[in-house]
């Protein structure tokens, strides 16, 4: 099972770049029919994770994927599942 991975540690403080990377990875998953995207905002204070979730909850973005899963073993990781 193929999976895309996006680690946001390197760009945690660049809002526009974070949005662009999230947009890119979501589009790539849809175009290549990848079933899962792993997004790693990191643990930290939780602000980056909240930003990622807000991005994913936008109506136009939410229409692209099937469900969002918060990793129960690692709260610094999210999985976005697609139904193609």
Topology:
Elements: E1 3-7, H1 15-32, E2 36-40, H2 47-56, H3 59-62, E3 67-70, E4 78-81
Parallel strand pairs: 1-2
Antiparallel strand pairs: 2-4, 3-4
Mind explaining what this structure looks like?
It is globular, with a radius of gyration of 12 Å. Strand 3 (67-70) and strand 4 form a beta hairpin. It has one domain (3-81): Ribosomal Protein S8, Chain: A, domain 1, CATH 3.30.1370.110. It has three helices and four strands; from the N terminus they run βαβααββ. Helices cover 38% and strands 21% of the residues. The protein is α+β, with helices and mostly antiparallel strands. The chain has a four-stranded mixed β-sheet, covered by helices on one side.
